[in-house]
Automatic annotation (TrEMBL):
It comes from the Bacteria. PANTHER family: PHOSPHOSERINE PHOSPHATASE (PTHR43344), PHOSPHOSERINE PHOSPHATASE SERB1 (PTHR43344:SF15). This is HAD-IB family hydrolase. Keywords: Hydrolase, Membrane, Transmembrane, Transmembrane helix. The chain crosses the membrane at residues 269-290. InterPro entries: HAD-like_SerB (IPR050582), HAD-like_sf (IPR036412), HAD_hydro_SerB1 (IPR006385), HAD_sf (IPR023214). GO terms for molecular function: hydrolase activity. Belongs to the HAD-like hydrolase superfamily. SerB family. It holds the Pfam family HAD.
Amino acid sequence: MAGVLEAAHSADPAVRAGEAAAAAAVAAGDGLPPDVPLTDLTAAAFFDVDNTMMVGASIFHFARGLAARKFFTTADLAGFAWQQLKFRVGGRETAYSTTTGRDTALSFVAGRAVSEITELGEEIYDELMADRIWAGTRALAQMHLDAGQRVWLVTATPVELALIIARRLGLTGALGTVAESVDGIYTGRLVGEILHGPAKAHAVRALAVTEGLDLRRCTAYSDSVNDVPMLSAVGTAVAVNPDSELRDVAKERGWQIRDFRTGRKAARIGVPSVIGVGAIAGAVAAGLAARKR
């Protein structure tokens, strides 16, 4: 963790979050099995997770699993979901979803071991996430792997959980929100801010420098207009299961659009898709933070 903290030296929280995410991804090492050849080392693919690679929000599924283990109550979880719904309907980030949420992000894990949370993440992935992977998006990722390229997830989800998802899918690794830890124990603070919006683009650029990638030859995939900065940072952008705003941007810019949803399913998951927005700043901590105040 010390190396990650040293790498994240910028005063800008978004840049700092991106630098930390890239450093954590490099520190975790490549997740590809030894029999997967890497023949195209300057090209790579970057996939958002929530409603791009996975149905719904990974952090919300994780929070459900933690609630089942009495980390906080289902009422706390419902309260967070309601805050996110208000954010979606209101169309703007509220004080809750930015300042308050960011400041309390992951506060509930303060004093807990990183290894404990990682172990729980493994269990919860099997219980609540493994069956929610979009087959179509998984096939897109495999296409890049078969072409000898590396594939990273890029998500606001905690990097420990993001790495679990990447490993289970046979991907190279993941860029995720980095929670500060000292000697393997969480402090309850973030390094920079949530890996969201511009921070994702900073993470991709930082990783490209470290890994020798040519971003003009790279591809990015996302469902959300919030990821336009990341999609704009690469040579090929693909809107997957896009929200209406991203669909409009994609059409305007000539980006590819892939939609693996049926009309009924698209309507049903429309609200949960925003759970990923400010997810770290809520699903795993909102209820407890409120109860502590």
